[in-house]
Design goal:
29% of the residues lie in helices and 24% in strands. By secondary structure, it is α/β, with parallel strands linked by helices.
Length: 248
């Protein structure tokens, strides 16, 4: 067989993960047994370090958040972990933070690197220039996996125009876009495993589009083509198709 299976997930957000979605996700992985496992970023939340964080957010445990995020990556046995904008707060604080906060961030970053090395996970930095992983071969129907650098209702269109072929997270919504004028240009967004009622985003009307979901599919190891599919909840069931067949 030339097709290897994969699972793609994003925006698990540390201790803000939805526990029912988490349970369903790992049950799916146990059954599907993907060859490749990719996390698109925001594996921690770090709400205490966001701009405009409330006093309640600042009082939340950083360690609990980090432990939950790291536990997810290890249980997932991730092969690829992209740094998302929430995760990147560690690197920003290590660079620009004051005293103990800067030192704490540096220690966490070193710990992340050690833990990712231990499970054989490649850590990909944040940023539009280096923050991506090529799944398959884009020129043959593969995709650039990235955290996502656009926002708003047209984010997925922007990702397609930038990457040509993109699988991303960031916006917490499920979507597929195919350019009618250039069919080879397409993009998918995979949703989130985080809670859909996070306090700091509850007043944002865009959260109405948020959905617990993830991605799956197959990568052709000979041609670099990729077949991508969404896994999403319909009613009380998580729906997906786990077979790929071809005819000539």
């Amino acid at each position: 067989m030339s097709w290897d299976s994969f699972v793609i997930v994003g925006d698990t957000h540390g201790d803000m993960i939805d526990l029912k979605a988490r349970k369903a996700f790992f049950a799916f992985c146990d059954e599907f047994k993907p060859t490749k496992r990719i996390h698109l970023g925001d594996w921690v939340d770090l709400r205490a370090w966001r701009r405009g964080a409330s006093s309640a957010d600042q009082a939340d445990s950083m360690q609990k958040d980090y432990d939950a995020g790291l536990d997810f990556l290890k249980k997932f046995n991730a092969d690829i972990a992209i740094v998302g904008n929430h995760d990147y707060r560690l690197w920003l604080t290590a660079r620009d933070g004051r005293g103990p906060m800067r030192d704490y961030a540096k220690r966490i970053i070193e710990d992340v690197k050690v833990e990712m090395d231990a499970i054989g996970c490649r850590l990909i930095p944040y940023g539009i220039h280096k923050g991506f992983y090529e799944l398959g071969k884009v020129r043959n129907g593969g995709y650039y996996c990235n955290h996502g650098y656009k926002s708003g209702i047209h984010a997925i269109v922007g990702e397609a125009r930038h990457w040509n072929r993109s699988i991303s997270g960031h916006i917490h919504a499920v979507g597929t876009y195919v350019d009618a004028a250039k069919e080879a240009r397409s993009a998918h967004t995979v949703g989130t495993l985080a809670r859909l009622d996070m306090d700091y985003a509850i007043g944002n009307e865009g959260t109405a589009r948020h959905e617990n979901a993830w991605g799956m599919g197959w990568e052709n190891t000979k041609t670099g083509a990729v077949e991508f599919r969404h896994v999403r909840k319909i009613g009380k069931e998580w729906m997906y198709s786990d077979t790929i067949k071809g005819v000539r």
